[in-house]
Amino acid sequence: MKCNQIQTLFMDFLYDEISNEDLRSLEAHLSECGACQKELESLKKTSHILQKWEDVDPDFNVVMVTEKVSWISRLKESLAQLFPKPKNVAHGLAYVAVGVFLLLAIANTEISYRQGEFKLSMGLLSKPSSQENPENSLTQEFLDQWQKENYFLVNSLIQQSELKQKKETASAILQLRQDLERQRIEDMSLVGYGLDNIERNTYHQIRRTDNSLNELIQLINAQRK
Amino acid sequence: MTDAQIINHILNGDRSRFNALVWQWEKPIYNFILRYVGNKELARDVTQKTFMRVYKNLSKLKDPTKFSSWIYQIASNLCKDEIKKMSHRNFISLDLIHENNENNGHLLPDQLKESEQSLPDAKLNQKQICNIVQKALKQLPEEQRVVIIMKEYQGLKFKEIAEMLNQPLNTIKSRMYYGLNGLRKIFERWQITEEVLNYEM
Questions:
Q1: CATH number for the domain including B75?
Q2: A165 φ, ψ to 5°?
Q3: Which of A106, A186, B31, B180 has its CA 20 to 30 A from that of B98?
Q4: Residue B86, helix vs strand vs coil
């Protein structure tokens, strides 16, 4: 075998991963080739030098936040309890969206697009520089306009949601009132029926007493005669 | 308990077992990363990130018996990313340093210069040896360095390294060969021999 073919076996040999067959060819070659023998020896020495760098103990503790998952699942559970119906979840999301809009509006958020780049800035955090070129002021104007529209949109959203809520409350109250009315009528008719019964019973009893008394009077009269 | 058993416990809901996995692996992984990135603080961050990623993705590990390959794969990917970030930040790539050294063989580590001046009386302590080897490793191209670290220090089989780095077996062996040869030349230039180190110890 040639030297460059044998050199591919050097690594297998150095790290004890060589097959018996390869080992035999390597040994055969080394016994004849001093250069390869020398090279293998120096590679072995290099490996030994590397081994002088010993492992160290880490001087810190790996920090794992094991609570993280359970915390999320707990949050999910409590959220599920808070919003058991999909309809309510949708309402909640709408409120959150309105909240975010409001927050962005309060923070004076500006999104601008120029030369293929979107820029996001917040009025609370960075003030626009006073030296602006006409293009900037145009953008500013557009942004002001946009912001006003944003305000208007948020306001109308809030108004709409309030209106909707009022409507829902009103219809619920109406429903309740109708239910109560129906219940009252039923109750009244029951009471009326009861009263009728009582009246009828009393009438019969009075008539029976009357009759008995009449019979008694007739009997007494007959006895007197 | 084997890694696979611990992982099965974790996947069955006993998350506290993850600590056992950390205790078992933090030392080898930290040393692997330290040799790869060559910086203690960075190694600490990357080790932390490695375990976070392992924790997050453990359920995606299809075969728990291959955990060892998997964690080294995660660690080496993170190291690669960090080195890339670092070279962007400093505008100096490791290859560039390597080239510099090829042109100018006198760029010796300071530690070595000091010890060389007073040879043969000076004693190289573990810290100095580690500095020399670390600086020598840094001269190698990254693809050779990672193979050398995995083979020489982590004791992985060539086949395992090939799987981890997703490269043919022969490519891994030749990177090992060229890497070791490169180190041999560097040590020769710096006049570091096994005998010197043994003598000093």
A1: 1.10.1740.10
A2: -65, -45
A3: B31
A4: helix
pLDDT for position A119: 74
Do B75 and B33 share a structural domain?
yes
| Optimal mutation site among A8, A52, A69, interface B, most CBs of chain B within 10 A | A52
Q: What is the mean pLDDT of chain A?
A: 84
Smallest Cβ–Cβ distance between B152 and the set A10, A50, A60 belongs to: A50
Structural domain count of chain B:
2
- Same domain for B8 and B34, yes or no, is yes
Partners of residue A42 in chain B, C-beta under 8 Å: 184
The alpha carbon of residue A184 is apart from the nearest alpha carbon of chain B, in Å, by 57
Q: Which helix (H) or strand (E) holds B15?
A: none
**ipTM for the complex shown:** 0.80
Q: A22 touching B, CB under 8 A?
A: no
Q: What is the CATH number of the domain that holds B166?
A: 1.10.10.10
Dihedral (CA of B74, B75, B76, B82) sign: positive
Chain A 57-86, CB below 8 Å of chain B: which residues?
57-58, 60, 62-64, 66, 69-70
- Between vectors from CA A61 to CA A59 and to CA A67, what angle results, nearest 5°? 170
pLDDT tens digit sequence for A24-75: 999 999 999 999 999 999 999 999 999 988 888 888 888 765 545 566 676 7
Domain boundary among B59, B90, B121: B90
Give the domain-ending residue among B40, B75, B90: B90
**Nearest CA to CA, how far is B180 from chain A (Å)?**
7
Sort out which chain A residues have CB atoms less than 8 A from B181's CB and list them.
Answer: 43
Q: How much is the pLDDT for A108?
A: 73
The per-residue pLDDT for A105 is 79
Q: Flag residues of chain B having pLDDT under 70.
A: 90-124, 198-201
Question: B126: domain range?
Answer: 97-200
Q: Which are the contacts of A179, defined by CB distance < 8 A and separation ≥ 6? A: none
Question: What gap in Å lies between CA B161 and CA B167, rounded to an integer?
Answer: 8
Do residues B144 and B80 both lie within one domain? no
